[in-house]
């Protein structure tokens, strides 16, 4: 009942909240990969078998940083969400497969990656909603 009272005015608050949470988290994770620790991140990718590491560091960093910005503001949300889904599907299957789910146990769990994947998948199907730059550019307010 409480949710029906809160969301009777505009049900598009939900994708806004999801977009902001996912977008800000992705920006936070992508920024150092592009601007602060490129060499370390590239080397780590090479140890995982993604060679050359310097090449793979760019799409990973851009997907998180630029994709996070696009998702947060709601511009080309489905395209950015698709890129994030693909990236986190690779992370889950190639890097985290067979590990414990909980990140608190050894810092290498997969539950946070699953949340990123599921959030991006939800936005891929749901869209950006009316509280987005996309909606404003197409329809105005």
Cα radius of gyration in angstroms: 17 Å
How many discrete domains?
A: 1
Kindly name the structural category. mainly alpha
H/E element sequence: HHHHHHHH
DSSP helix count? Answer: 8
* Share of residues in strands: under 5%
Give the biggest sheet: none
Helix content: over 70%
Q: Please give the number of β-strands.
A: 0
Distance between the termini: 29 Å
Q: Summarize model confidence as the mean pLDDT.
A: 86
Keywords: Cell membrane, Membrane, Transmembrane, Transmembrane helix
Membrane topology: Multi-pass membrane protein
InterPro entries: DoxX (IPR032808), DoxX-like_oxidoreductase (IPR051907)
GO cellular component, one term: plasma membrane
Describe the structure.
The chain is mainly α and 141 residues long. The protein has one domain. The chain has helices spanning 2-6, 13-35, 38-47, 53-73, 77-95, 103-106, 111-126, 133-139. The chain is globular and about 50 Å long. Keywords: Cell membrane, Membrane, Transmembrane, Transmembrane helix. It comes from Candidatus Sungbacteria bacterium RIFCSPLOWO2_12_FULL_41_11. One of its GO terms (cellular component) is plasma membrane.
